[in-house]
Every structure is written in structure tokens, then in C-alpha cells.
Amino acid sequence: MELTRSESLALMLANSRAAAVMEVSDLLAGMYIYSWERLSKYWNADHRDQVESLLQQICQISPQRWNYWIQLYDQKRREGEKQRGWLPSWKPKKPQQPERTLNHSAALTLLLKRAEEIAPSHDTVDGRRIPILTSECVLLCIVTAKESEISRKLASSGLDVPKLEKDALSSRRPIRD
């Protein structure tokens, strides 16, 4: 569920750039914005501010942009949680523009395929075995993609890859946010 929310944020980011496809950096940004509390444990607490700065640089998010996205995401989350009151709304609502969907870039498609291959948990739907992806699993695939500049930057950021790998490959389901 949390990865789906991260992907929704990534879609919003990619749409804000008028991108043709969703990139790895967009998904990383979505994971960073939505799951930082959960993922930050893979970095030394003394260096988290520097890591956040690095992630903002990789994901091309300025501090002002960061605040904007956090506020926008929180607003959208709250709107989704609101329950309609028993009184009808007297104001006509503006029809909302549907969010433009984007295909994944070739690099993101490959990354998610790798994550599916290493995912320790699966579900069965209509007789098919479906991998359950987590942010840890995807982050591990990002950092181990040797051909990627993002991978090299993350690897040099002090990320505790062995701890991440242990958690990502554990068959125990993560605690829900």
C-alpha cells in the first residue's frame, strides 16, 4: 500500500514536470516524500540531514518544492479521508481534472521487474502468483543497479546496504504505515 502511495506521488511529480514517462528518480522522490520515516533507518542518524539534501538533489526537489509537495500530498490525503456530512453541499463542485497517467521509463520498468524477482512475499490472485513489492525491495534494486548514477550516489551516501538487503529480502511482511 505504501509503495502505491509513493507511486501516486511520483506520478504527481512527473506530471508537474510535464514528463513523457515516470522515471526512477520520480519513484525515489515519491518514496522519499511518503516513506522517509520508514526508510531513514538505513542511514546513520547523524548523517540524515546530508542524505535528505542528497535525495532532494537526486530527485530535483528544492526545499521550497519539498514543502509544496508535502503540503499538497497531505491535502490530497485529507480530502480522501473526509467523509461527506449528512448535509448536502450547496456549492457546485468544480469537476476535477483527472491526473494524467504516464508509462514507466525503460529504466523504471527494469527496476520494478528486478524488484518483482527478489520480492520475498507473494499473493495469489486468480491462480497467479503476484509479488508484493515494498519500498525496501525497490530501494535495494535502485542502489544495486550498477549502471545507474542514482545507484552510485545512494551507495556513497552511507546507506546501510546489508541491513536494507536483510529487511528487503525477509519474508516477514513489513509493519504497515
Structural class: mainly alpha
Biggest sheet features: 2 strands, parallel
Write down the Rg.
18 Å
Overall number of domains: 1
- List the uncertain runs: 83-88
β-sheet strand percentage: 5-15%
Indicate the mean pLDDT.
Answer: 82
Number of helices: 8
From the spread of the alpha carbons, the general shape counts as globular
Give the end-to-end Cα distance, rounded to a whole number of Å: 9 Å
How are the strands ordered across the major sheet? 1-2
Order of helices and strands: HEHHHEHEEHHH
Portion in helices = 55-70%
Instruction: Give the beta-strand count.
Output: 4
Q: Could you characterize what this model shows?
A:
- There is one protein chain.
- With 177 residues, this protein is mainly alpha-helical.
- The chain has one domain.
- The protein has helices spanning 2-16, 24-39, 48-58, 63-81, 106-118, 135-144, 149-155, 161-168, and strands at 21-22, 103-104, 122-125, 128-131.
- Strand 3 (122-125) and strand 4 (128-131) form a beta hairpin.
- The model is unreliable at 83-88 (pLDDT under 50).
Topology:
Elements: H1 2-16, E1 21-22, H2 24-39, H3 48-58, H4 63-81, E2 103-104, H5 106-118, E3 122-125, E4 128-131, H6 135-144, H7 149-155, H8 161-168
